[in-house]
Write a structure and sequence with these properties.
Blueprint (H helix, E strand, L loop, with lengths): L4 E2 L11 E4 L2 E7 H12 L2 H7 L7 E3 L2 H6 L3 E7 L13 H19 L3 E3 L7 E4 L2 E4 L5 E3 L9 H18 L4 H7 L5 H7 L8 H18 L17 H17 L13 H4 L4 H18 L3 E5 L5 H8 L4 E6 L2 H14 L3 E5 L19 H4 L4 E4 L3 H5 L6 H9 L4 E6 L5 H7 L11 H11 E8 L6 E7 L2
Parallel strand pairs: 10-11, 10-13, 11-12, 13-14
Antiparallel strand pairs: 1-2, 2-3, 3-5, 4-5, 6-9, 7-8, 14-16, 15-16
Length: 467
């Protein structure tokens, strides 16, 4: 049996920590959380929330190795291992909004059972396709009469404020969020939000007023910290009203209109005719049926059209990645409407999510979180090779290194899409050709099959990694 390996992202919580042993996930319940755990376990709140789909399943077990790794452990529970952990700075507007509404609805459901959440971290929400669920059951504790919502500020910084940047400014805040990890501070948001966007009662109470209170609590002229406010009381009715008011406001938020993205309409306007599209679908379906991937990554997933094809052909689950938020929101809508095991995440492939946070381990980067069984990279490589000046050999090496099996589409320089990319820049890519691409692919992988699928010469390559 392997040693109990601590999961780096769980180190901050004194209530308990997460460990992995032989591919299985365990969580300790330490003495500081034991009473709350026992209360919610014994009165049925935990099991009811699990059965209702709000909370990740947890089974109490005896595990000497995990208990031995943490001397303060009173209980050990086992959770199912997640296929893929996503971070909130990788979510599109639709996913972040759904997670925020879910978090508030979960709190309202808990409050009806005299329970609350001790924090409001967006990292505690994960997705099964487009369905959110809560993964940190040690955040649940019994409600205390008259208590104030202590997670309000964290909720605003990790859920509300990024949503307002999407909705009120028409700007995707993902890079800012990733750079800060703890979210977007309200004091920063109020500096960039026009005063006309702060006139409503909701904006005043959750943004302007919160920023004012935070500024007052920082320090005075002598630099000494102000004393924290004490004795705040909130009736249960008022607590519920605060959650409901915030929930109703967020549910009505929409993306700022009039912001047309570059590739958001690509699925409706690409250069394939119907026969060519059918050929591409057939090729992808044959690939998936042959390789039977439990986890497939769709790089440049756009609106999820071929992710859906892959799932219909037998892929167990698809994680789609794209950098265009218009396309991502449409992909999220597709996954939600069709009930797909499909999650669409923001990715700048030339600058993917890195390992970061405390000791550069707290939040794992894209490659460290899971290894795909297969990838699709359709109409994708030219965005790296032409759009970001990544040499073809490096582009190919990175792509085939992501999974044992791949379908990669090569787009000729004469293709209208590449010509559009070159319209306002010098063509400095003399080596960009299908012959050089195929040679690079052959150095890193075995080409199983190739097929031209468009009149402009777009070619699909099915390959297996040589490693």
């Amino acid at each position: 049996m392997s040693d109990a390996r601590p999961i780096a992202g769980s180190f901050r919580d004194p209530a308990g920590h997460v460990f992995e042993v032989d591919g299985r996930i365990y969580r300790t319940v330490n003495h500081v959380a034991a009473n709350a755990y026992e209360t919610l376990r014994d009165n049925g709140v935990l099991s009811d929330m699990i059965d209702a789909g709000w909370l990740i399943s947890a089974t109490e077990v005896e595990h000497p190795l995990v208990s031995g790794a943490e001397s303060s452990a009173r209980y050990v529970v086992e959770h199912p291992k997640l296929t893929f952990i996503s971070h909130p700075y990788e979510w599109c507007f639709s996913a972040l909004k759904r997670a925020a509404v879910f978090h508030l609805d979960f709190q309202l459901a808990l409050l009806e059972r005299d329970a609350v959440l001790s924090d409001a971290s967006a990292y505690n929400v994960q997705f099964d396709g487009t369905r959110p669920y809560f993964i940190d059951f040690l955040s649940l504790r019994p409600y205390r009469d008259g208590e104030y919502w202590t997670g309000h500020r964290q909720f605003c910084e990790q859920f509300l404020n990024p949503l307002l940047i999407f909705a009120k400014l028409g700007i995707a805040p993902n890079a800012w969020y990733r750079g800060g990890l703890e979210g977007i501070s309200t004091t920063d948001l109020v500096r960039i939000l026009p005063w006309t966007k702060r006139l409503s009662w909701n904006a005043f109470s959750h943004v302007t007023l919160q920023a004012s209170l935070q500024n007052k609590s920082i320090s005075n002229d002598t630099g000494s910290a102000a004393k924290p406010q004490t004795g705040k009381k909130l009736s249960k009715t008022a607590y519920r009203g605060l959650l409901q008011q915030l929930r109703n406001w967020i549910a009505k938020l929409t993306l700022k209109q009039g912001e047309k993205t570059v590739w958001g309409d690509y699925a409706d306007s690409h250069s394939y005719d119907s026969d060519e599209d059918l050929a591409k679908r057939r090729f992808v379906g044959e690939f998936v049926e042959a390789t039977k991937p439990d986890l497939l990554w769709d790089l440049g997933c756009n609106t999820g059209e071929y992710s859906s094809v892959a799932l219909s052909a037998g892929a167990g689950r698809v994680i789609g990645f794209d950098f265009d938020h218009g396309a991502l929101n449409k992909a999220f809508a597709r996954g939600s409407k069709e009930g797909l095991k499909f999650q669409a995440l923001f990715l700048d492939a030339a600058n993917p999510s890195p390992d970061q946070g405390w000791q550069q381990r707290e939040r794992q980067g894209m490659a460290a979180r899971a290894r795909a069984d297969a990838i699709l990279a359709l109409a994708f490589e030219h965005h790296l090779a032409i759009g970001r000046n990544v040499p073809i050999d490096q582009t190919v090496s990175w792509l085939v290194g992501l999974a044992p099996h791949a379908v990669i589409e090569f787009v000729e320089k004469s293709d209208p899409t590449v010509q559009q990319m070159l319209a306002f820049r010098e063509d400095i890519f003399p080596d960009y050709s299908k012959e050089n691409f195929a040679n690079a692919l052959a150095r890193h992988a075995t080409i199983v099959k190739s097929e031209v699928v468009s009149a402009s010469g777009r070619t699909l390559f099915w390959c297996t990694n040589n490693v």
